[in-house]
Design brief:
Structural class: mainly alpha
Helix content: over 70%
Number of domains: 1
Strand content: under 5%
Number of strands: 0
Low-confidence stretches: none
Length: 275
């Protein structure tokens, strides 16, 4: 039995549904392109500002303290307990194979190559990225940014460049501290819970950990810090409205910064393994 032909009304609504989907997809794609275009334009201006006068050295030092030094606690605690968990999981997973002697190398390599840089970047992205957006966003909605332009002061040079430089400089330092604390956390579990000696733990680390592992992990954090600071500053400068808009921009920064860290980590890992 032949199927009845669909009516003109059914065809119209079916096509209308597709048109709505295409329209929604196009609008979303246009917003993404506009966002990325504005972000890279700001990054280009900030890079020029890093190498041309005027320099705001005192502001850079202030931001290094505010954004870097005050983030040591949260990144250190995260890495410390991550190292402890890694030691426990490694011990119980490899106990049947006599793998307790590998605890030191598993903890150190996992932290130095991946977990240390990524977890530090995620913590900094949550604390620092949101703080940058909230601060600059508040200045934007209260017209302080417009006041800087009226006084012939570039907001990019005065607000963006110091924060960008501070985060890029402090990220490798924070990651190095986090790596050290994570390894010490694994040492504590290895000695107190698993009855290993200090010598066995550190011998396992020295036999496996190479300078290239440390350099690749720390190199990633430069890109992570740059992305976090750039996204935070751009979202702050684009705030329109009142306090509610600042809150939305802050949330957007945390999401975008986290996604950019995870995606860039994959490509950077492939790059460093290929080198």
């Amino acid at each position: 039995m032949a199927q009845p032909e669909p009516s003109a009304t059914a065809i119209f609504y079916r096509n209308l549904g597709w048109l709505r989907f295409v329209d929604r997809f196009g609008r979303k794609g246009s917003q993404i392109v506009d966002y990325l275009g504005g972000l890279f334009q700001m990054i280009g201006q900030a890079l020029v500002g890093c190498f041309t006068r005027p320099f705001y050295s005192s502001e850079v030092l202030n931001q290094m303290d505010e954004l870097g030094v005050k983030s040591v606690a949260i990144t250190g605690i995260t890495a410390l307990f991550t190292g402890m968990v890694l030691a426990l999981q490694t011990a119980y997973s490899l106990e049947a194979f006599g793998g307790k002697t590998f605890i030191g190398r598993v903890v150190s390599l996992s932290l130095v190559r991946e977990l240390g840089p990524v977890l530090t970047a995620l913590m900094v992205g949550g604390r620092v990225g949101s703080g940058i957006t909230a601060e600059i966003g508040s200045m934007t909605v209260t017209e302080q940014v417009d006041a800087l332009r009226a006084m012939a002061i570039s907001p990019i040079r005065r607000l963006v460049v110091p924060r960008l430089v501070a985060v890029v400089v402090m990220m490798p330092i924070l990651t190095a501290i986090a790596d050290g604390l994570g390894i010490l956390g694994g040492l504590g579990i290895a000695v107190l819970e698993l009855r290993m000696t200090f010598q066995d733990y550190f011998t396992s680390i020295l036999q496996q950990l190479a300078i290239s592992d440390i350099c690749s992990g720390l190199s990633k954090t430069v890109f992570f810090g740059f992305a976090i600071a750039a996204i935070g500053c751009y979202n702050g400068l684009q705030v329109e409205g009142g306090a509610a808009a600042v809150g939305k921009a802050t949330t957007r920064t945390v999401v975008y910064a986290s996604i950019s860290v995870l995606i860039s980590d994959f490509f950077l890992t492939k790059l460093f393994l290929a080198i």
